[in-house]
Amino acid sequence: MIVSEPTMGSATAILDTETVATLQAGLRGQLLRPGDEGYDAARQIWNAMIDRHPALIVRCGGVADVIAAVNFGRDNELLVAVRGGGHNVAGNAICDGGLVIDLSPMKGIRVDPVSRTAWAEAGVTWAELDHETQVFGLATVGGTISTTGIAGLTLGGGFGWLSRHYGLACDNLLAADVVTADGRFLRASAEEHPDLFWGLRGGGGNFGVVTSFQYQLHEVGPTVLAGPIFHPLDAAHELFRVFRDTAAAAPDALGGMAALLTSPEGVPLSALVPVFSGPLEEGEAVLRPLREVGSPVADLVGPMPYQTIQTLLDGAFPSGRRNYWKSGFLRALDDAAIDVLVEHFTRAPSPFAGFGIELYGGAANRIGPEETAFPHRDSPFNILIFTAWEDPARDEANFGWARDLWAALQPVAADGVYVNYLGDAEAEGQDRVRAAYGAATYERLAALKRAYDPANLFRMNQNIIPAPA
What we know:
It is a single chain. 28% of the residues lie in helices and 23% in strands. The chain is of the alpha+beta class. It folds into three domains: 2-102, Uridine Diphospho-n-acetylenolpyruvylglucosamine Reductase, domain 2 (2-Layer Sandwich), CATH 3.30.43; 109-220 and 438-452, Uridine Diphospho-n-acetylenolpyruvylglucosamine Reductase, domain 3, CATH 3.30.465.10; 223-431, Vanillyl-alcohol Oxidase, Chain A, domain 3 (3-Layer(aba) Sandwich). The strands form five sheets. Strands 14, 15, 16, 17, 18, 19, 20, 21 and 22 form a nine-stranded antiparallel beta sheet that branches. A five-stranded antiparallel beta sheet has the order 7-8-12-10-11.
């Protein structure tokens, strides 16, 4: 007998051995329970603060397994979580006592270099997709850490190095295959179920389990002009001002970020990471102001494979540390805000704490706010405040530092937040989820949720509450 946590509003679910055996017999993939070999590895995700114990983990071998798992979770009133790459800081990929629908074994990728499109299954990471597309000199907009799964990032909007050039990942989504809460398999696109397609482009995993994605590809590289430029911490004020002023006049092909961080040797540094995805000779001129400021400790900018820049930050965000983030869009990066950033960084509680100011705008801001469920299309910057540590006794110090810095930035903060950077829903609060969409978009999403998931089966996410009937 298995006792499971319930879905919203139901009593505790009790599953007998025969019921579970019936599920297992119908799967091509693997069913894991506590005590099974591989169970502990399958419940671990990137953020070590998340230590949950599902009653069942279905490691799906294909769409049939996903349909079976969705039907089983719904019919038995289980709490359901859906796992793609497992990199999300909030940890929504894993639940306590419920059912995890694990898509990570689903790794199929098919690239069509003639139409410049690619289909990829939901267990694929950006490193894996880039590996297949770059052989043809093509790419779509991915994240900034290659171990991130394509599914969660795309469904939450999807910011990456190429966003100013080609928009967000969701702007490059052409179609998606979805298993809805009632077990139906649907193709969502501009022509089929366009309401669902709109909601998938930014609305997260609220409307079903997306099993595969079709992307528009672009000619990218294989060589781009990119790389980090490191300066001493005391150069941060000047560096950030040049970054701000250069960004204001930059062509769409310039992406990147400014950051404060600590080197592996324990040295506080200020840094720029420009990525120019246009012609290299044009990039040399665009990047010149960023490379001529101050006296860098190291300037590693140069022509490099796109896949190299995609993996640049992987080592700074390894799996297995405790992680906490605060984030939001910025209306401006004025001198006062730069002062706040530098001063707070000097009090960072961990050598793995810092922040990145991501260059936003360009093509991402030329999509109408009503065209997708990702409405934030007018900010020049997005900031991610991150901290990581290993000792649970340091939790409160790290939480407090990130929260204090975010509070101090409110004079330049925009109303919105990038949903993929939101932390634990209980800690963030429903108001913060609403801020990820704005009032008009959230109302439309709530109506869509009522249509496709009225019982809120898919609620282990930055949850959109179904609108009243």
